[in-house]
Specification:
21% strand; alpha+beta; 5-stranded antiparallel sheet; 40% helix; Aspartate Aminotransferase, domain 1
């Protein structure tokens, strides 16, 4: 089974608001860049990559958590990050029931994560 099919299956299996929320988050992420790759890792979680990890999405009992691998290094002008703010690497967005996905702002944040990944890759290639 392909990674995208596993993610489809996960979303379909979430019969409550979390399925729709994860689907909306996924749609915004994939719309940010045509070269984003979906993977299935961490005991059954969707993970999005482009030149490095962008984010992992997990449906918890009371929220959908989108954790950005390098979120602490990203500008967040729309103040989407609302969890993990004390960490020095990761930052997360917790979506609770009734939350709205700010698609444009999320796409911008994903693009910033891609730019960060690309800048790290360029630094490594120069070394």
């Amino acid at each position: 089974m392909k990674n995208s099919e596993r993610i489809d299956e996960l979303i379909a299996g979430l019969a409550d608001w979390r399925g729709e929320m994860l689907a909306n988050v996924r749609k915004a992420i994939l719309a940010a860049d045509g070269e984003i790759v979906e993977e299935w890792k961490y005991m059954g979680s969707p993970v999005w990559y482009r030149d490095g990890m962008i984010a992992v999405g997990i449906a918890h009992k009371d929220k959908v958590k989108l954790t950005f691998a390098n979120g602490a290094h990203l500008a967040d002008p729309d103040q989407l990050f609302n969890a993990g703010l004390e960490g020095n690497q990761r930052r997360a967005i917790d979506f609770s029931e009734g939350s709205k996905v700010q698609a444009r702002a999320l796409r911008d944040l994903v693009r910033a994560a891609i730019e960060y990944n690309q800048s790290k890759a360029k630094k490594k290639s120069r070394a």
